[in-house]
Write a structure and sequence with these properties.
Elements (H helix, E strand, L loop, with lengths): L1 H17 L25 E5 L10 E4 L9 E4 L10 E5 L12 E5 L3 H5 L6 E3 L11 E3 L10 E4 L17 E10 L2 E14 L2 E6 L11 E6 L12
Antiparallel strand pairs: 1-12, 2-3, 4-5, 6-7, 8-9, 9-10, 9-12, 10-11
């Protein structure tokens, strides 16, 4: 009996010692402006945290040069425009959306996209031959084209005023290379490039000046609260 008990205890100890510790290697949950965990089943407005008439505005879809179907992901200029709400969809279908993990960003309730038979997923487009940039557009892509990450960033790296000096300040990141089933290498920030008066989201190249990401915060679309920045 003693031998059997010792053997059982030994197996239990070994199992506990070798069992992965849940959450030990997991990233922190992404938080909205109210400090609540971002949920993949809810919708959010992604809004620039830079304060100003020209720099503060939500993320939206633009019809681009064709003037009919939304093709481009843009930042609205007026600071009181919230943009279009979207969902954040983790690669592992988790309800909790975490920092620095692969997610898909998908606009919701865009009727014009349905009319154009176009998916509302964000994707990184191929190099623009004339401008030499990789813009964020809308549609189904291949492998890593549709995957992005949100990473926490400090307000101190920006020269301009940050509307919300709070812990839940993020930048958008795109990693272009698939390794071991995950898009985790050759990562670059997503910023804004003014093209013909439109603030288009673009992958920031190391040679771009200024080489800064777009700082964003998340407002829950279904909170019922007014989307207001505090006075500075």
């Amino acid at each position: 009996m003693k031998t059997s008990l010792v053997t059982t205890l030994s197996f239990l100890i070994l199992a506990l010692a070798t069992k992965p510790q849940l959450g030990a290697s997991e990233s922190e949950p992404i938080l909205d402006v109210y400090g609540n965990q971002v949920d993949s089943s809810h919708r959010y407005y992604l809004v620039s945290a830079l304060w100003g008439v020209k720099t503060g505005g939500g993320i939206s879809a633009d019809k681009g040069k064709n003037g009919q179907c939304p093709t481009d992901v843009i930042q609205l200029s007026p600071k009181d425009k919230r943009g279009k709400n979207l969902g954040l969809l983790p690669y592992d279908n988790s309800t909790i959306v975490r920092e620095s993990t692969n997610i898909k960003l998908k606009f919701s309730r865009v009727s014009s996209l349905q009319q154009c038979n176009k998916d509302s997923l964000w994707k990184v487009d191929n190099d623009n031959a004339s401008l030499g940039k990789q813009f964020i557009t809308i549609g189904e892509g291949k492998t890593c084209q549709n995957f992005f990450k949100l990473e926490k960033v400090s307000a101190s790296i920006f020269d301009m005023k940050i509307a919300l000096d709070i812990p839940c300040l993020y930048k958008i990141v795109h990693c272009s290379t698939l390794v071991n089933g995950s898009c985790d290498t050759l990562c670059k920030d997503v910023g804004v490039s003014n093209v013909d008066g439109v603030q288009r989201l673009v992958v920031v190249d190391d040679n771009d000046q200024p080489n800064l990401p777009l700082p964003v915060v998340l407002f829950p679309a279904d909170s019922g609260r007014s989307m207001l920045f505090p006075s500075l």
